[in-house]
Every structure is written in structure tokens, then in C-alpha cells.
Design brief:
Number of strands: 5
Order of helices and strands: HHEHEEHEEHHH
Radius of gyration: 17 Å
Strand content: 5-15%
Structural class: alpha/beta
Number of helices: 7
Distance between the termini: 32 Å
Shape: globular
CATH class of the domain at 57-172: Alpha Beta
CATH topology of the domain at 57-172: Collagenase (Catalytic Domain)
Strand order of the largest sheet: 2-1-3-5-4
Largest sheet: 5 strands, mixed
Amino acid sequence: MSGNWRCCGLGVLVGFLLSGPLPGEEKQILRYLNEVLLEKEFGGGDGRIVRWIESPEVVLVEGSGEHRKVLNRVMGQLNGALEGTSMRLRSVEESRRARRIEVFMVPQSRFGAIGRDRAFDPPGNQDGYVWVIWNTEKKFIQRATVLVAVDRIEGDLLQHVLLEEMTQALGPLGDTAVIPESVLYEKGQDHGKAPKLSDWDRRMLGLLYGHLKPGDGGIEVGVAYARFWGK
């Protein structure tokens, strides 16, 4: 995504609400929303919301019983943030639905083969990665694949990485440098370690699935923030 769009996207959010200077925290929240909802960490994007239009099933394709426990904890956090919306994640042993999130908790050496089977090329040396396919015209997500390198990380860091990738599988595909407490935090070589969603992360997911729709841009995000962020 171009640097020019990033500037303009934030300008739309701030400009929509501005008649004078914004308070410092409000500027930070708007920057955070711009970074996570309208920008994309990998691949293309045009400054528009992408998200599911119906709840996907979540299937642990490869992973142990202990990994399933971590996945269940992560899904519990996400479903808590999504309470009151139409979105609900449900874990299944096997899914035949086209719209699903496939989770692989595997050694990092497996990433390449899994990507080739699903027509994507994950970057090397990653603890986690998410590949999201969406309708480029209507902006709704069709499928997502989450990879977590269980031979490189464990404990709270394992939960953090899985939570970050699962959060991004819902549509917030950008990282943020605004608040270290966010599970989507990244600044330079600091990729964050939060094993739980921050308050802003929970509110952002509530906005995304309660008050925004696929294809919305900076103006719609600004309206949703102004009307519902503090509710």
C-alpha cells in the first residue's frame, strides 16, 4: 500500500471530525483505527474495510490437544469482544464450508508446503502468518489460513502470536505502532507480546462487526468512531 494513501486515509479520519485540534488521545485512537482497519501488513489493499459477512467455522487442521486449548482460549477472547454483534467463531473438527479459518500450529519448516498447497508464499523466518482471501469488488472475506510456528515459541508468546493472527483473520490486517498493549502492535523489531486483546482491540472489533461493513472507508470509520467508540 502506498505511503500517499496512508497519509490521505488518516487525513479523512481526522478531517471528518476536525473543526479544531483533536485531543491527544483521540488522535491516537484515530491513527490506531487507520493503521489496523484500513492499511494492510502484506499484499494489496485500497484503504477499504474487509471483513466476513457471515461467521466462519474455525478448524484446527494440524496441531496437538494442547494447541487446541490455546486456540479455544484465543477464540474465547475474540468472541467476548464480538459479543452483541452477528459474528461468532465456532470451532469444528472438520469443515466443508467454503468460508472458514484454517489453523495450522506446526513447525515453521511446514509453512512453505502449506502455503504452496493453498497458492500463497509465506515469508520466511516468521513466528506466525495469516493469509486472507477476500472478494476484491465487494470486500468480504472468503477464507483465511493461519500459521503458527510452535517450534519457535511457547507459553504466553504462543498465545500472543495465535491471537494476533486470528484477530487479523477477522479483517484488521494492519499492524499498529500506537499502543504496545495492542495485540497488533509492531514497531521496528518489536513485534509485541500481548497475550490478551487490549481495550482498544476489543472496541475496534466491536466497531468492525457492529457498525461497519465491507467496503467502508475512512469517512465511515470516522462516523462509527464518533458515534459508538465510547458506548
